[in-house]
Amino acid sequence: MNIGILGAGHIGKALAQLFARAGHQVALSNSRGPETLEDTVRALGPNVRAMTSAQAAQFGELLVETIPFGKYASLEGLEVSGKVVIDTANYYPQRDGQIDLGGQSESSFMARHLPGARVVKAFNAIAAADLASQGDPGKPLEERRAIFVASDDPDAKRTVSQLIEAIGFVAVDTGTLEDSRSHQPGTAVYGKPLTGQQARQQLGTSG
Ligand SMILES: NC(=O)c1ccc[n+]([C@@H]2O[C@H](COP(=O)([O-])OP(=O)(O)OC[C@H]3O[C@@H](n4cnc5c(N)ncnc54)[C@H](OP(=O)(O)O)[C@@H]3O)[C@@H](O)[C@H]2O)c1
Q: Which ranges carry the Pyrroline-5-carboxylate reductase catalytic N-terminal domain (predicted)?
């Protein structure tokens, strides 16, 4: 699959490497332009290339939005309609400034700025270094680290769950984008290395 990644920081680079290793074609982008990513993509190997964010959005059948939460307005105008978009973002007021979420979950707020996109919250509750090192496709699912997935679109959630399993983690369904409050910053499961069973126990869900 062609995957476009918007954001080439800690999470963007870790996901580019994992998706490339799993055999996907990846376009990585940042805010400063592809020429600033030459060394990065060279290190990530032949399945990863650098593009502008507009080009990466067009290239990807599936997109990942992994920019600082406070920069959400810079996503406007990208061609995301109809595409599955993974939202990894977390809102930290001290980093991102005061933003009125209008009482919504962080990902419901983000989805409003990605018109027509099939938004799936995932990879928000794992540190980038753990994401880069803890996936193991050789392990049985029950021994793998859990990655929480939430979406209002069940098919999109299934697609992202399969991707999560292909890179060596296990997906734990936490419900809708509004339900994804259960793994936002400050929650009991945020940043914790849990198996699927442990995660479901902590959340009190069966997903
Ligand atoms: N770091 C973690 O361990 C971690 C874990 C889970 C979730 N998260 C969340 O994931 C998100 C990304 O975190 P991070 O730590 O990876 O961020 P980061 O290291 O600060 O990198 C952010 C990246 O976003 C790029 N960017 C900004 N605006 C953009 C735009 N309009 N189009 C394309 N790229 C754009 C930046 O490019 P320039 O450098 O060119 O400006 C940079 O490459 C945040 O919401 C964070 O809270 C982080």
A: 3-91
